[in-house]
Amino acid sequence: MSLAIPAVWTETLAPGQAWSRVLHRHQTLTLTAQGDGASVAGLFYRADALIERYNMPDTLKAQHTAFLGAGRVLLSDMGHVLLAITADSCGWHDTITGHQDAAEAREQFGVGTYATLRNQCFRNTRDNFLIELAKHELGLRDLHANVNFFTRVTAAEDGSLHWDPHHAKAAMAVTLRAEMAVLVVLSNTPHPLDTATEWAPAAVALTIAQTPPPGPDDPCRIMRAENGRAYQLTEALFPTV
Amino acid sequence: MTINATSLRDPALAVVDQIVAPGDGWTHALHRGQVLRIVDLEGNQAVDTLFYDLHDPSDRYDAVQTMRRQQRVYLTTGSVLYATSGKPLLRISDDTCGRHDTLGGACSCESNQVRYQLVTLPMHSCRDTFLLQLQSQVPRWGVRLSKRDITHNINFFMNVPVTPEGGLNFADGLSAPGRYVELIAETDCLVLVSNCPQLNNPCNGWNPTPVRMLVWEV
């Protein structure tokens, strides 16, 4: 890849901002909420083979969970670990309710165009994703289920879904470690089940760091036997030194 | 949930009446207003299914939109199957099983390795069926699809309960011999089916069996 990444990088994901970047193997990305009610939507692709991407069903069924948190891994559709959640003070990240498009955002928040609001305009997740994906020659066909960081959505016994309005608090943080070069696409836009009528996403700080490879007792590797096999298949992609 | 629904449609009047063997695929273009019935002939057989807008296949069934717009994890009578654009593709008009999964995705050789054992790689899987169908059968309907178009599918007759605590498991099926689900096409769409060959979990009752596909005109 031609994108040069410094060893350490920090920036702020402004309300409404879209973002994409290749995380190199064993780099970590930490997202830290700068206010209550944060929600960041994310999509993930293997950087050197973009046809391989985050797969929500494979990730959930392999780990027998309906949500993401510390110790969980994000699996690709080819049985590889893209990212591992190495730290998390949030406890629950949704990945089953997708994201909002322009029409839905307009219905919820009203019209908030660039012409009237300049860069405070009401951006929506779908358009943000399409813009960022196009920078990597991806598009609508590459749009599968995303992760919604900082968001808790539970299912009742009858299957009804419930968004938790009190879940996301300022200073909550989640850290993802890339287990191969991963294209990360983020959108700091409201969660689709958020009932707010005012468009007001919280800013989110991003920090990238270089970390050592996961050892044999890494908590994400030993979380479940399935994770161990996914690591085995992933590490086999790389020559041993 | 409509367990005892009985459709009045007569199989003798169906324009399509085909049996899909376990492990096989099925591709068909449904036109707006047509009705598709999938019959679980022997019970507890997962039928992995994808839908595409026939005239714009980049717009396709979207599992997360479908769950979120209706705020329900499971599908049954009355559920609308939404495309990524937010357009309704189909509606479930009748269902004698009770509920269907759209969270569990399709099995693949690669995910089988992760979930079960590395040596499961040679076992037949739904994604392989989809990959072959989209090269051998889908072009006959004037549609071009590739692996990037294989999005998260519906598993008709499959039971993947989600607990309030966020647990998720593949459980024994709720279906039984002869139970069926019926869908009305709200738009012209391409149907891609894999009659699931999974032998590593109870999604097919440990014994994959045939299903019957029936299509009626309006």
Series of H and E elements of chain B: EEEEHEEHHEEEE
Number of helices of chain B: 3
What strand line-up does the widest sheet of chain A have?
A: 1-12-3-10-6-5
Q: What is the assembly state of the chains in this entry? A: heterodimer
What profile does the largest beta sheet of chain B have? 6 strands, antiparallel
Total domain count of chain B: 1
The helix tally of chain A amounts to: 6
Shape of chain B: globular
Runs of chain B in which pLDDT lies below 50 for 5 or more consecutive residues are none
Strand order of the largest sheet of chain B: 1-10-3-8-6-5
The count of DSSP E runs of length 2 or more, i.e. the number of strands of chain B, is 10
SSE class of chain B: alpha+beta
User: What's the total count of β strands of chain A?
Assistant: 12
Mean pLDDT of chain B: 95
Q: What does the radius of gyration of chain A come to?
A: 17 Å
Describe the model.
The complex is a heterodimer of chains A (241) and B (218). Chain A has 241 residues and is of the alpha+beta class. Helices cover 19% and strands 27% of the residues of chain A. Chain A contains six helices and twelve strands. In chain A, the strands form three sheets. Chain A has a six-stranded antiparallel β-sheet. Chain B is an alpha+beta fold. Chain B has one domain (21-33, 41-175, 184-216). The longest helix of chain B is centred in the middle third of the chain and has 11 residues, at 126-136. Chain B is globular. At the A-B interface, helix 1 and helix 6 of A face helix 1 and helix 2 of B.
